[in-house]
Design a protein that fits this description.
Structural class: alpha+beta
Largest sheet: 10 strands, antiparallel
Strand content: 25-35%
Order of helices and strands: EEHEEEEHEHEEEHHEE
Shape: elongated
Number of strands: 12
Number of helices: 5
Distance between the termini: 25 Å
């Protein structure tokens, strides 16, 4: 049964992007942390590549209290915020250090122990920030995983459970065949599970393969976070790491509930003739 499958059983994944993020009350002299980070991160093969200013607007699924029409949170006020960007030589991982947040973006995570290494680096950066600024106060910590595949129309429900989207039921007394043809569907669910909050975006977009066969681009975007009950400071590295790993475990359980046992078995075997694009082999 797919409920018994563990993450370590999988030899492939559907991940397009992974984001680790922590928010804190604004620190205007964040450049003092960046100087210390350069010494820490150079040993982990990360280098400071850019310094910039951005508007304080989050174009990502976030807490459901203030949502724009397209489902993304937009802060009520716009502020200019200085950010520093560290990257690895392969340009597959970005570490963004801002005046009110630290963001770790993983654009490719196919190596077996890649994510464990990312958590370690992320936690070390946070603990260093906590030691540097004794007054720092954390307000939110989250992990977001974006899964993305393209599959043929006929394989949509081979990959995803039938309740991935609630079907629209329209009765038309003038026709015998009442099939609805979906071109684009999107839904956002906000829920709690095991003491963690989650925003789950499900998106399907119709398209066509090179041979003009109908296909769908499917996104399953799961954002797990702690906000209301987050501690203002972390007692230790282990406490912080454990918190992130628990969110990660819950995301995996939600992920499994959305896909079929057929696709789970394909992820275990590392191959699928039902997925046209998006199945990534774990190196």
């Amino acid at each position: 049964m797919k409920s018994d499958v563990k993450r370590k059983d999988l030899t492939s994944n559907l991940l397009n992007k992974v984001t680790l993020r922590i928010d804190f009350l604004r620190i205007v002299n964040i450049e003092e942390l960046v100087a210390d980070l350069q010494k820490l991160l150079i040993d982990k093969n990360f280098f400071l590549t850019n310094e910039d200013f951005i508007n304080d607007i989050e174009l990502q699924i976030n807490d459901p209290d203030v949502l724009s029409e397209d489902g993304f949170k937009v802060k009520k006020s716009i502020k200019r915020e200085r950010i520093y960007i560290f990257q690895n030589p392969e340009d597959t991982i970005d570490l963004i250090v801002g005046e009110s947040c630290i963001i770790f973006n993983v654009k490719k995570c196919n190596e077996k122990y890649c994510f464990a290494s990312c958590i370690e680096t992320f936690c070390n950066v946070i603990i260093l920030a906590q030691e540097k600024f004794k007054f720092i106060r954390f307000t939110r910590i989250g992990l977001r995983k974006i899964n993305n595949i393209i599959c043929k129309d006929t394989n949509l429900y081979y990959c995803f459970e039938k309740d991935f989207f609630n079907e629209i039921n329209i009765k038309d007394s003038t026709k015998n065949d009442n099939e609805i043809k979906y071109m684009r569907r999107q839904s956002i669910d906000n829920c709690e599970f095991n003491g963690h909050s989650f925003n789950i975006l499900k998106f399907i977009q119709e398209g066509f393969l090179d041979d003009q066969e109908r296909a769908f681009n499917v996104v399953l975007d799961i954002d797990g976070y702690i906000k209301e009950n987050i501690c203002e400071r972390f007692d230790s590295y282990n406490d912080l790491e454990t918190m992130i790993k628990k969110i990660n475990d819950d995301i995996f359980e939600i992920f499994k509930s959305m896909i079929t046992e057929h696709l789970i078995n394909d992820l275990i075997s590392g191959k699928s003739d039902k997925v046209e694009w998006g199945l990534n082999k774990n190196d």
